[in-house]
């Protein structure tokens, strides 16, 4: 069950983040607030179902950081440093893309300046990020089956002759 929810939450993360990276109309402060609220609801649900150890919440980390990026101030050099230290699960390309797509929805917000984006790129230039922008939502985690040893010993097993397993020998 834990592995199923980890996979499901990864897919939620990948689809939501990819939509954020491709749609200018959703890159705003208010969307960041909505995302953060919805993610907190998912995390609370995981706690309620005792699935915190499944790793499902960790798969949402890039989306959490993207939501926080949308909510942070984007003006000063200190803001750039804060963004760089906060957004460790996002690649440089993803951070820059979100900042470029950021669209103010009211008069209190402003567009992100080109100088600020260049400052971010300068801070993140030493990162060795993968070149891909979008997350692979078809990625599947390996299924792990726990080993449960049997109480039955091999010498007590009787193999019927009808199975034609004469090539097996007891050692």
Number of helices: 7
Proportion in β-strands? under 5%
* Quantity of strands, as a count: 0
> Helicity level, as a percent range?
40-55%
Q: Label the structural class.
A: mainly alpha
Gyration radius, rounded: 24 Å
Shape: elongated
Average pLDDT = 93
**Helix and strand string, N-terminal first?**
HHHHHHH
Tally of separate domains: 1
Distance between the termini: 39 Å
**Low-confidence segments:** none
User: How is the main sheet built?
Assistant: none
Domain Dilute: 1-126
Protein name: MYO5B protein
Pfam families: DIL
GO molecular function, one term: GTPase binding
In short:
The chain is mainly α and 171 residues long. It contains 7 helices and no strands.
Description of the structure:
The chain is mainly alpha-helical and about 170 residues long. The protein has one domain (about 1-125). Helices cover about 50% and strands about 0% of the residues. Helix 5 (about 75-85) packs across helix 7 and helix 6 (about 90-100) packs antiparallel against helix 7 (about 115-125). GO terms for molecular function: GTPase binding.
């Amino acid at each position: 069950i834990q592995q199923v929810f980890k996979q499901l939450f990864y897919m939620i993360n990948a689809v939501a983040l990819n939509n954020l990276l491709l749609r200018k109309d959703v890159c705003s402060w208010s969307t960041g607030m909505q995302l953060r609220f919805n993610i907190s609801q998912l995390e609370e649900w995981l706690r309620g179902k005792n699935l915190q150890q499944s790793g499902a919440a960790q798969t949402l980390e890039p989306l959490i950081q993207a939501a926080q990026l949308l909510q942070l101030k984007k003006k000063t050099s200190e803001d750039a440093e804060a963004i760089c230290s906060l957004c460790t699960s996002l690649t440089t390309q993803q951070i820059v893309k979100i900042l470029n797509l950021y669209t103010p929805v009211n008069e209190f917000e402003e567009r992100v300046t080109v100088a600020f984006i260049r400052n971010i790129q300068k801070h993140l230039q030493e990162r060795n990020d993968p070149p891909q922008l979008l997350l692979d939502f078809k990625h599947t985690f390996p299924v792990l089956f726990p080993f449960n040893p049997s109480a039955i010993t091999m010498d007590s097993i009787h193999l019927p002759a009808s199975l034609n397993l004469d090539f097996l020998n007891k050692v």
